[in-house]
Write a structure and sequence with these properties.
- Helix content is about 35%, strand content about 0%.
- It is an all-alpha fold and about 120 residues long.
- The protein has one domain.
- Helix 3 runs parallel beside helix 5.
- The longest helix is centred in the last third of the chain and has 11 residues.
- The two termini are about 15 Å apart.
């Protein structure tokens, strides 16, 4: 897809930095990227991180993507990270969508180049 320009190597938890220190390692430049749910970093970024954790009867993945991309969620997430001192960390997304949910997003006309 990237023509070899982007190469990703996965490592098991704790292989490069101790558990729960991944966010700090990205901020400091020791890691290029990481993938963890925001809620596990409540100690670093505050209780607002739980806002990005799914709740029963809450918005589904499709609604979250729409809110994140065009409803101000992306800016709010970056503000949350910045307020906690993580100004070198960029949030790139957090969804696993089913085909039904993906069809909802396609029907909205969401500009996928912005993701």
């Amino acid at each position: 897809m990237s023509g070899g320009r982007l190469q990703i190597t996965n490592f098991p938890p704790g292989a490069l930095v101790p558990a729960m220190q991944e966010l700090d390692a990205v901020q400091e430049g020791a890691l290029d990227a990481m993938n963890s749910p925001a809620s596990i970093y409540q100690g670093q970024v505050g209780i607002v991180s739980n806002f990005w954790t799914g709740y029963p009867a809450g918005p589904g993945p499709a609604e979250e993507v729409i809110w994140y991309m065009i409803g101000g969620g992306k800016e709010l997430y970056q503000e949350m990270l910045g307020n906690a001192g993580y100004d070198n960390v960029f949030h790139a997304g957090f969804w696993a969508l089913s085909s039904a949910e993906l069809s909802i997003l396609i029907a909205t006309g969401l500009d996928w180049r912005r993701i």
